[in-house]
Design brief:
ten-stranded antiparallel sheet, disordered N terminus, 10 strands, 5 helices, 287 residues, alpha+beta, 22% strand
Length: 287
């Protein structure tokens, strides 16, 4: 890789390999560390054990990723997107902690096809905002009940998660926990799941292990009766046709990536190579 390419690529790697620590995942409530709705990013993965409609044997893992919603976009009426999150080559990674490694190792018959996951952050203070992964290539639809996503969905889910071991003790350190049906709303497959607890309609906000998920900011357009929802998909700022995405690997490594843009010299070399291949092909045809 040339020096220019290295300069273009912005890499931020946050490798976390230690065991879970005690920390509350901030959402929109003061009790859960919320400050003006600036909720923290969190990651959930759940095991359906092959029975999507039966939660009795489900387990889920939820982790505080630490970054706040305002790190990605402002709380302005028209949110300002953090340009760093769309810079070509930006890379943010989270290695599995001991609890996630144990969770993945306990997946029924190591059948990873039973696992689903997503990343989100919620703000229900004033003008509601949500950061969320999406399996679909199109922006999430206008939703007259968008407020329920953060208030009845995210806040309720995190409120239940935060009383579990691994989250009590404040927002200063990032922790994780495992939940089952006995933990009520903290079980991600039941209260959160593929469609925000049945709040996002047919839009799928979760993915399979190894799958790349798009990432969106959704923001309520006004604080009265909800009529529209502003949305922004995170992409490569230089080449918006290239999506930024989250991905969860089989080993539990979670990454957010923005593809690097090839420099002019690289494009020139590629074009020259294609021309050479074409010339060779023509010679063979004429021979």
């Amino acid at each position: 890789m040339s020096m220019k390419m290295k300069a273009l690529a912005v890499a931020v790697t946050l490798a976390v390999v230690a065991g879970p620590a005690a920390a509350t995942i901030a959402n929109s409530t003061v009790a859960n560390g919320g400050v003006n709705g600036n909720g923290e990013l969190f990651f959930s993965v759940w095991d359906t054990a092959g029975t999507a409609d039966d939660y009795s044997d489900d387990r889920s893992y939820t982790r505080d990723l630490g970054g706040a919603l305002n790190d990605w976009a402002s709380s302005d009426n028209t949110p300002v997107i953090n340009a760093a999150k769309e810079a070509p080559g930006y890379n943010m990674g989270f290695g599995p902690d001991a609890l996630l490694t144990s969770f993945l190792g306990g997946t029924a018959s190591a059948n990873f096809s039973n696992l689903r996951w997503n990343v989100a952050a919620v703000d229900s203070s004033g003008r509601d905002r949500v950061l969320v992964t999406s399996r679909d290539g199109l922006p999430l639809p206008i939703n007259a009940d968008f407020r329920k996503w953060s208030q009845n969905g995210g806040d309720a889910f995190l409120g239940a998660v935060n009383v579990l071991p691994g989250h009590v003790g404040g927002v200063g350190v990032n922790g994780s926990s495992i939940a089952t049906l006995a933990d009520g709303s903290a079980l991600a497959s039941k209260s959160w799941g593929d469609n925000f607890g049945a709040r996002s309609g047919a839009m799928n906000v979760a993915g399979n292990i190894g799958e790349k998920l798009n990432f969106y900011l959704l923001a309520e357009n006004g604080t009265g009766t909800v009529t529209t929802v502003l949305n922004h998909q995170y992409v490569n700022a230089v080449d918006p046709t290239q999506s930024a995405f989250w991905q969860l690997g089989n080993d539990g490594t979670l990454t957010y990536q923005v593809a690097a843009v090839p420099e002019a010299e690289t494009w020139a070399m590629m074009a020259a190579g294609l021309l050479m291949i074409g010339a060779v092909a023509r010679r063979r045809m004429s021979a």
